[in-house]
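Ticket #456: bound-state structure for uridine-diphosphate-N-acetylglucosamine.
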Amino acid sequence: MKLKAIILAAGEGKRMKSRLPKVLHKVCGQPILEHVVELAEASYVEECIVVVGHGAEEVKKSLPTHVKTVLQSEQLGTGHAMMMAYDNIDDNGLVLVLYGDGPLITEETLKSLMDYHTKGDYSATVLTTDLTNPQGYGRIIRDENLQLKKIVEEKDATTEEKAVKEINSGIYCFSSKALKKSLPLIKNENAQKEYYLTDALTLIKEDGLKVGLYKTLDYKEIMAVNDRLQLAEVEEIMRSRINSRHMKEGVTIINPKATYIDKKVKIGQDTIIYPGTMLKGKTVIGEDCIIGPNSVIEDCQIGNGVEIQNSNLVESSVDDFSTVGPFAYLRPNSSVGKHVKIGDFVELKNAKIGDHSKASHLAYIGDAEVGQHVNIGCGVVFVNYDGKNKFKTIVEDYAFIGSNSNLIAPVLVKKNGFIASGSTITKEVPEGALAVARSRQENKENWVTRKGMLKE
Ligand code: UD1
Ligand code: CA
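RESOLUTION: The complex was predicted; output attached.
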């Protein structure tokens, strides 16, 4: 049977007090809405339709091209939002309704909801949960047979109804046919003068069809983001789920509360993550690594047995058994080979470093290709920019770049080339040659005495 998801995301999100549409705020590195779309797609949904309204253009742009959007230019309620997607609803099939601001619902729960719906032969099924503080939510009013009588919104509820702890999550599974029949019949005769999707359930019942209630015990799954406090709460829950998953798969996280890992990051077995570390985007980390403390690694490939301490790495790769940091900065398009040492205060940009090479301290290596077994001394600068253009430096295998040298690009240091400390290299260094490019030392005897500055 064809399964579609309709994701409601047209609301303004006033309480966020933000210029950014609410559903584009990030949780664990991804927009809230993106989490919801991914979740729907992981739950066998064939097509996702997102109802956009506030910030429609921005929201559309954030979505992958295969996700369909429909516009709700005026927000007249959840029922009205669903009406905008009316033409996309098949005559036969299932429709899963999700909220663009609720990223914590799990695949397992969605699958159970759909199973319950199908097995019970329901025409609509509502996901519910009990809340100790149900304020603000629609309450589930059950009849004497414990079946759904109706859903009342807080603003329309009597004192008695307000005391009910079971709430409507806003997540539903509908049979397309029943949904299509009920949507046009929804009226806005209520306290908010809105078209409530919840009324579709009463209409379906009145049509003699079955409406199911599927209760989840984990109230966290239905949490939505309405303000920045909830944004932080939701982030904390998702972060803790991600960290737990890695720990269960054999990663040591010294302090999960202070470790920030995006959803798509992969980490190998027996890697240890120290506090203050952020692993972002599509980063992949191998086995037996030691990462952190305080490292930010975004969209990087890290091999096995790598150590990265107090460093920032962006769009770069580090191969097996290399060490980075403390306080190193790998900027985009850098690739570090095996058994390499990138030490303290070393910056790489668009640079390739061959196996067994070392830059142990205080160096800038930009737009460079460095071979194997190369030693880059302390304070070496790859001078890649003349104020207008960037140029490349090539350093071949076994070269030795003495401390505090400048390599003025474009320049080539050939195999086994040896550069004397303090040199400013502007010409090619031949294979096996020593290049000394600094002024000779001159000593002026007794100069201090002559100046009357001698101290004893
Ligand atoms: C809705 C439910 C309520 C439920 C609660 C769960 C109705 C009438 N009420 O209430 O029973 O307990 O969710 O969170 O459905 N949206 C649109 N267009 C609109 C209105 C809303 O796209 O015109 C979207 C919002 O962006 C949001 C979602 O629908 O993602 C829910 O809207 P919201 O206004 O928060 O619904 P509630 O009043 O909280
Ligand atoms: Ca809400």
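RESOLUTION NOTES: Residues 225 and 231 are 5 Å apart (CA to CA).
TICKET STATUS: resolved
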